[in-house]
Amino acid sequence: MKKILKILLLIAILAGIGFVVKGQLGSGASTSGEPLTLYGNVDIRQVTLGFRTSGRLESMSFEEGDSVEKGNLLAVLDKGPLEDNLALFQAQVSAAEAGVAKLEAGTRPAEIVQARATVAESTAALKNAEKSLTRLSELVSVGSVSKQAVEDAQAIHDGASARLESANAALALAEEGPRKEDIAIAKAELQTARARVDQAERQLSDAELRAPADGIILTRVEEPGAIVATGATVYALSLKAPVWVRTYISEPDMGRIHPGMKVEVFTDSRPDRPYVGQIGFISPVAEFTPKSVETEELRTDLVYRLRVIITEPDEALRQGMPVTIKFSDSSLPPDA
């Protein structure tokens, strides 16, 4: 009998615990008709800044906590080596331009006249060699000269003939001018030289680090004199805009919100002066509530992430600051 009473008592206790848990689970979700309240944290974009080229830091203009505007000069590298490279490549461009102009202009008239004179000289030398060879060939038959003399005359004749052929070829090249292929090669070399100049100018421009947007310097990583590599962090910047709130909403309340809906965002530092915001993004994917978010739901409930964009943020909003998002009755859909 006592055993049965113990079992009944245990069942009653378990039923009571289940009723309490069920009541706690139901108290987290907003009921229809009640103002919707969500909890989240301020999310501000941060960017690490560095140079696209390596070098020695010459100067840094801002300290941690300083406010900067878009385009402000934050830091500068030593430009000496970069300016030297630019001057070298510019000289190469000038030389390449002169080479292209020379080929496109063709052979100078004086060079053609010189080539023709060489042809005339070679022609005369060949005629003289032919006469000498003919005369010696006639004399060798009567024994007046040796065969060696005839062979020497033949060698002189052959050399004169070869020189004349070479002179004619040189004259033809001079009259024809440079080959199209040579001009194309020269132009390609000129384009390469100009590309090097563009690259050097870009590197010289990259020696200046400027603020990409309005923000506040979070971290000053390096100091003047340091040798920094390409892409190494020099500053960390917290952007002033956009500022949004990352929050989560449970599935039963999804029908009560929509993108563009106006909300009020409250912080502990100014509970009587809420910020105005609007819903800018609602995740299409469900996830578990992150541990960093404080809501009235159990952390194991599936929720949807959404982003609330602050309309007029100020410096009082800090990264990670906890906030409360409230939807006024007028902002809710008519069927809420």
Descriptive notes:
By secondary structure, this protein is α+β, with helices and mostly antiparallel strands. It folds into 3 domains: 29-43 and 241-331, Efflux pump adaptor protein, beta barrel domain (Elongation Factor Tu (Ef-tu), domain 3), CATH 2.40.30; 48-78 and 206-236, RNA polymerase II/Efflux pump adaptor protein, barrel-sandwich hybrid domain (OB fold (Dihydrolipoamide Acetyltransferase, E2P)); 85-201. The protein has 5 helices and 12 strands. The strands form 2 sheets. Strands 1-8-11-10-9-12 form a 6-stranded antiparallel β-barrel. It has a 4-stranded antiparallel sheet with strand order 5-4-2-7. The radius of gyration is 45 Å and the shape is rod-shaped. The chain starts with a helix and ends in a 10-residue tail after the last strand. Residues 14-31 have low confidence and may be disordered.
Tally of structural domains: 3
Largest sheet properties: 6 strands, antiparallel, barrel
Shape: rod-shaped
| Relative helix content | 40-55%
Number of helical stretches of at least 4 residues: 5
Q: What percent strand? A: 25-35%
Distance between the termini: 54 Å
Estimated structural class: alpha+beta
Count all strands and give the number. 12
Evaluate the radius of gyration: 45 Å
